[in-house]
Amino acid sequence: MVLFTGKGGVGKTTLAAATAAHLARSGRKALVVSTDPAHSLADALEAELGGEPLEVDGVGGLYAAHVDSRALLDGAWGRLREHLATILAGAGVDELVADELTVLPGVEELLALAAVQRTTQAGPWDVVVVDCAPTAETLRLLALPEALGGYLERLFPAHRRAVRGLLGSLAPERTGDAARRWDRTAEALDGLVDELTGLRALLASPCSGVRLVLTPERVVAAETRRSLTALALLGLHVDGLLANRVVPAPAAGETGPAARWLRDRAAEQTAVLDEVARLGLPMRTVEHTAAEPTGVDALLALGAQVWRDDDPAAWSPAAAPLPALRRTGGGGRSADSEFELVLRLPGAATTTLDVARIGDELAVTAAGVRRLVALPAVLRRCTVTGARLDGDDLRVAFRPDPAQWLR
Ligand SMILES: Nc1ncnc2c1ncn2[C@@H]1O[C@H](COP(=O)(O)OP(=O)(O)OP(=O)(O)O)[C@@H](O)[C@H]1O
Ligand SMILES: [Mg+2]
Global pTM? Predict the structure, then answer.
């Protein structure tokens, strides 16, 4: 699964469609699916699209769909919302207010991705290309499976649900309507948490990769840097950048005002691209075409220009951004040793970074995204002695706490 994201309007939809068309032409069964409610994928392909994958004319093996947002509320989240609203209403909360209280911002986008996951698993696809929402929403959405899963677990710990069931079997006369409603809510909740966990696993798995699309402008480059940090924090592989709408340099000797404008524009774009290249990720540039690249033929031409003979699906993932545990001192006896937890956060030097230990977890906030990293067993009995940023690596130092170690 290849996800295309980036700032609004940079060319995510166009490049997702062009990449899928290119893959289809190289003999792969490719599906391009958009989670964007604006449905601009249909405009890019100049085709009618629906919630189910349809074959696109013009190149064999290219299928496209956009997520049907109305169908999304039928799943686990729809059931959970219903149960929660009933419980709130039962507790005396006004029905309309109860309904409002169960709205969770961003969850629709998350459900869209969950729907993409179902289509991905159901279909015969070699590659699924996902045209995501602009970065800010996508990031919030990608943070959700983990954040929501953990949050819901805290609200309704699994053991409390088990006790609830036990009480019900021991004293059935004490379990009225309310208790049954809680049980049904717990079931719906389990369904949702399962769905989210599966989604996260797919997104963070080595067979998924994120392509960040940008245009060579300072404002866009700054957002790209922040997105990179945030995506790494979420454990997603960003395996490359696509710099779109790069203008050609004018022919030497041309001096008219149009040539001057083009030369200035090209020089400025080059300066920004040089800066972006320092992020150290594979980057491809995409020419600003004179005609708007819509329709399968134009997209195929664009895809061929970007990918040439390379396989867009094989763009190798960067080093896994998972936390790594290192022993930094001590040696023989573990109670003496010191440990370091290393989190790779590209671009973190230019954002505000916040690290805090909360019980058995490390809360890391960067580029506006917060992630709870569960500490490995050995670190739970340690105290944090410091944290520093070393290049792209956040290094958090731990020392065993003798009091806890002997317990
Ligand atoms: N390389 C290019 N050359 C010329 N025009 C382009 C190029 N790439 C994209 N465009 C045009 O730029 C506009 C925006 O592109 P597109 O819709 O793909 O962006 P997007 O990132 O998906 O936007 P949104 O954030 O609104 O979803 C479209 O009109 C598209 O045809
Ligand atoms: Mg788009």
Answer: 0.78
